[in-house]
Amino acid sequence: MTSPSERRLRKEFLELIKNPIPGVIIDGEKIEKNINEWNVTIIGAEGTIYQGETFELQFLFNDKYPFDSPSVVFIGKNIPEHSHIYSNGHICLSILSQDWTPALSVGAVCLSIRSMLSSATKKERPPDDLIYTKTCSKNPKKTKWFFHDDNV
Amino acid sequence: MSTTSDLSVNETLPDSTASIEEEHASTSEIDQTHRSSTQYSFTPTAENSKTSTKPDAAKKDDEDDEDKRDDSMFVCNICLDIAKDSVITFCGHLYCWPCINCWLETKRPQLCPVCKAAISRNQVIPLYGRNSNSQQDPRSKKIPPRPQGQRTEPDNNQGFQGFQNFGDGGFHLSFGIGAFPFGFFASSFNSFNFNDIRPRNGQQPGSPQYEEDQFLSKVFLWVAMIFFCWLILA
């Protein structure tokens, strides 16, 4: 008996295999082992400052998904240098916390992150990167985010 | 004066309407003839093209595809399954009732997951298909009934701010001296009646606090009565 969250994740997984999103690669083998933990590779879009780079995203889902947002962080050595991405991999993106809705999906989040990367014009860390990375919790969902920049 | 003018209008009206109707009739006749001629010339060729270009197998595939597309149109936006106990929001987005109800209960303000329009429990329409075995409102089953509204009376004795401290226990105490001894009576009876009609918030009839209040208010009523009698007799 699979839980509703696993059922929905399986559907999303099958859909992404059937209709892959350009620039987004999912690690199928790992997902088969544990449906609640996804590793997704994002390829920097052509013509942007991240062209040719690859980044790794980690999605962690709890049993309240899709009513509760997944925890999404960049992992690995290459964490994109972006004004909304902290050096520990945490992402300041409204749809990952207060603006999350169950109609969103892994694919939609990947697309949002990819477009957020694509619209950046220069590589820089957020101004409060040092303070935040020292004081924050390991789980980005525990951070109280303030969203101020609607452009990027 | 007025009657004559009315008559004249009545006389002129039928003529004008008749003429308009005639015009309509003539134009529609033209339309009909035009249409019939075009239908006659077009329909056979359309049928021919259908039967000649598409073999039966291809036709079947098309139908299957169409079926799939139709099915995917009725997928719940939350669980990604075909919507069961389906409801539709005013903004036109389809959900299973259990799914959307769960979302409505988890987050405030209540927004449509797809378009973020404001929605609520009463702003969704249940959908009944031809073969749905029950015409029961999906909102009425499976989901625990919503809690009953809790209503608290507003404080309406704003004119007596000074007695608020005494009024908490459900009774009022006032001192009438000199020309206003009746104040006792009025306030005591007021509190007595109030307690009978509508118990204050948190005091259900039967609870120890309620009984205590009842007892206290009766005691004070008697004290007031005795004091009043003493005033008259003295």
TrEMBL record, chain A:
SUPFAM superfamilies membership: UBC-like
EC nos: 2.3.2.23, 2.3.2.25
Entry keyword set: Transferase, Ubl conjugation pathway
Example of a GO biological process term: protein ubiquitination
Span of domain UBC core: 4-152
Pfam families: UQ_con
Any one GO MF annotation of this record: ubiquitin conjugating enzyme activity
Catalyzed reactions per annotation: S-ubiquitinyl-[E1 ubiquitin-activating enzyme]-L-cysteine + [acceptor protein]-N-terminal-amino acid = [E1 ubiquitin-activating enzyme]-L-cysteine + N-terminal-ubiquitinyl-[acceptor protein]; S-ubiquitinyl-[E1 ubiquitin-activating enzyme]-L-cysteine + [E2 ubiquitin-conjugating enzyme]-L-cysteine = [E1 ubiquitin-activating enzyme]-L-cysteine + S-ubiquitinyl-[E2 ubiquitin-conjugating enzyme]-L-cysteine
Stated name of the protein: N-terminal E2 ubiquitin-conjugating enzyme
From TrEMBL, chain B:
EC id: 2.3.2.27
UniProt pathway: Protein modification; protein ubiquitination
Gene3D superfamilies documented for this protein: Zinc/RING finger domain, C3HC4 (zinc finger)
Every RING-type domain range: 76-116
Key words of the record: Membrane, Metal-binding, Transferase, Transmembrane, Transmembrane helix, Ubl conjugation pathway, Zinc, Zinc-finger
Gene Ontology molecular function: ubiquitin protein ligase activity; zinc ion binding
PROSITE patterns: ZF_RING_1, ZF_RING_2
Top EC category: transferase
Pfam family, one: zf-C3HC4
Ranges of biased composition (kind: Polar residues): 1-19, 35-54
Highest taxon of source: Eukaryota
Residue ranges of the TM segments: 171-194, 215-233
GO biological process: ubiquitin-dependent protein catabolic process
GO cellular component: endoplasmic reticulum; nucleus
Catalytic function, reaction form: S-ubiquitinyl-[E2 ubiquitin-conjugating enzyme]-L-cysteine + [acceptor protein]-L-lysine = [E2 ubiquitin-conjugating enzyme]-L-cysteine + N(6)-ubiquitinyl-[acceptor protein]-L-lysine
Record localization: Endomembrane system
Disordered, as annotated region: 1-69, 127-159
Ranges of Basic and acidic residues composition bias in the record: 21-34
InterPro entries: RNF5/RNF185-like, Znf_C3HC4_RING-type, Znf_RING, Znf_RING/FYVE/PHD, Znf_RING_CS
Protein name: RING-type E3 ubiquitin transferase
Protein source organism: Polypedilum vanderplanki
